[in-house]
Amino acid sequence: MQTNAHTGTRIDEVAAGIYRINTPLNIPGIPGGFNLSQYLVVDEQPLVFHTGWRRWFPFVSEAIATVIPLDRIRHVGYSHFEGDESGAMNDFLAVAPEAVPFASQVSVMTSLNDYADRPGRGLADGEEFSTGKKQWQWLYTPHVPHGWDCGILFDKTTGTLLCGDLFTQAGAETPAVTEAEILTASEAMRKPMDYYAHSRNTRAILERLAELKPKTLACQHGSAYRGDGAALLRELAAILEKENQAG
Ligand SMILES: [Fe+2]
Ligand SMILES: [Fe+2]
């Protein structure tokens, strides 16, 4: 459902209780444009993953407010500290007085506790928590795809991996959910932009994510993918390993 005609922002449910807020972005340098998503989880304790840029807060929050009142939000977190992931953190904390900011322990130590207006909750690798009906697991994924502080969230209830910048797909207009593979599109973005860290542990980290057998990959850029998430993660890991070996 489109919520802002001027920016083209829309909100769509991509898995039970998980809403993708998406805004197209037309910038020089990426032919066909780009896009940013944030995810709203509607549960007893609503959660927002990725805040979007600070200057985008008016239309990102406008989209969320069509589903729940903003002051109901209890958790606001992000994968890694970067403008599109965490820029509007303080705007969320201002409108949701009971919301607690969260990120990896490393991110809380290096950035969040300095940047955010309230103390952050640092999640340990493998840590689980509940938002009511949904059970979450935090996976620390340093440098995958980038950022020492990087981590991602897995909803054990629906099998949805909020996978941040993994499988980033360009394009201003991307369907909310697709069942067509997204690896070709995300490889077309990764190779020329080279936004992955050249980490030694990438294969092991991606294998660990594959073992979760995600049914939905909720990407921050591009469509959410519904299908065999493990197969796609393993395919990506194999491509990266080959590249590494080629040096
Ligand atoms: Fe990023
Ligand atoms: Fe991103």
Layout of secondary structure:
Blueprint: E1 2-4, E2 9-15, E3 18-25, E4 34-41, E5 47-49, H1 57-64, E6 75-77, H2 83-86, H3 89-95, E7 100-104, H4 105-115, E8 121-123, E9 128-130, E10 135-140, E11 151-155, E12 160-164, E13 177-178, H5 183-193, H6 202-210, E14 216-219, E15 224-226, H7 229-246
Parallel strand pairs: 5-6, 6-7, 7-8, 12-14, 13-15
Antiparallel strand pairs: 1-2, 2-3, 3-4, 4-5, 9-10, 10-11, 11-12, 14-15
Helix pairs in contact: 6-7
The chain binds fe (ii) ion (2 copies).
List key phrases describing it.
single chain; alpha/beta; binds fe (ii) ion; 247 residues; Metallo-beta-lactamase, Chain A; 7 helices; globular; eight-stranded mixed β-sheet; seven-stranded mixed β-sheet
Write up what this structure looks like.
The protein is of the alpha/beta class. The chain has a single domain (2-246), classed as Ribonuclease Z/Hydroxyacylglutathione hydrolase-like (Metallo-beta-lactamase, Chain A, 4-Layer Sandwich), CATH 3.60.15.10. The chain is 28% helix and 28% strand. An 8-stranded mixed β-sheet has the order 1-2-3-4-5-6-7-8. Strands 9-10-11-12-14-15-13 form a 7-stranded mixed β-sheet, with no helix packed on it. Strand 5 (47-49), helix 1 (57-64) and strand 6 (75-77) form a beta-alpha-beta unit. The longest helix has 18 residues, at 229-246. It starts with a strand and ends with a helix. The relative contact order is 0.15. The mean pLDDT is 97. Bound molecules: fe (ii) ion (2 copies). Residues 84-85, 165, 220-221 line the site of one fe (ii) ion. Residues 80, 82, 146, 165 line the site of one fe (ii) ion.
